[in-house]
Write a structure and sequence with these properties.
Low-confidence stretches: 1-23
Distance between the termini: 34 Å
Number of strands: 7
Number of helices: 6
Mean pLDDT: 76
CATH topology of the largest domain: Rossmann fold
CATH superfamily of the largest domain: Toll/interleukin-1 receptor homology (TIR) domain
Shape: globular
Strand order of the largest sheet: 4-3-5-6-7
Number of domains: 2
Largest sheet: 5 strands, parallel
Oligomer: single chain
Strand content: 15-25%
Length: about 180
């Protein structure tokens, strides 16, 4: 897995670091972790100064193509939304799961709102349900977003349990929902 942090205001590439590091199964070295944390802090500072919302994007792996379209649309339309993505490819119950949860928890903590992209695949994802619950536990606003005329019939349990608002894939409506969720 490779993650690139971008300063959204200028679209200037800040850096790329491989998660998993040396390939020996020991993860990031302390120097790599410190570099990654500093890059994240810098990107967050720049996003805060630009007046953009820093959001955590939660989605099922099967929806990566759709989510990439959303990211591209946000860049193209000059959106006030800066996505903070921590895509994972590890199974929820894998040996790496706790390490990944800690990383995701920190990313959610750094954001003001979590956007959940919902599709027919989303309700099957243990990661998405956990991310919603973790965002709520951390006091973050959560908004669900769907493509098409109506949300899917099957949603993660946390969305219905906590009455998370669901909006259509529309930059204006999504932006308003994010502002409301951040204020609550």
């Amino acid at each position: 897995m490779v993650y690139a942090l971008r300063a959204r205001k200028s679209s200037r590439r800040l850096g790329v670091i491989e998660v998993g590091g040396r390939g020996d199964g020991k993860g990031l070295t302390p120097a790599e972790q410190e570099r990654l944390e500093e890059m994240a802090r810098g990107a967050l500072r720049e996003a805060a100064q630009s007046g953009r919302r820093n959001v955590f994007l939660s989605f099922a792996t099967e929806d990566l193509g759709e989510v990439n379209l959303l990211r591209g649309q946000a860049k193209k339309d000059g959106s006030d939304i800066a996505f903070n993505d921590w895509s994972v490819k590890e199974p929820f119950d894998s040996e790496e799961a706790e390490y990944i949860r800690r990383g995701i928890r920190e990313r959610i903590r750094q954001c003001s709102v979590t956007i959940v992209y919902v599709s027919e695949s989303t309700s099957k994802s243990k990661w998405v349900d956990w991310e919603i619950r973790e965002a709520l536990r951390l006091g973050k606003g959560v908004v669900a977003m769907h493509k098409g005329d109506a949300p899917p019939r099957s949603l993660p349990h946390a969305i219905s349990e906590h009455r998370i608002p669901i909006v259509p894939w529309n930059q204006e409506q999504l932006s308003r929902a994010i502002d409301r969720a951040a204020a609550e």
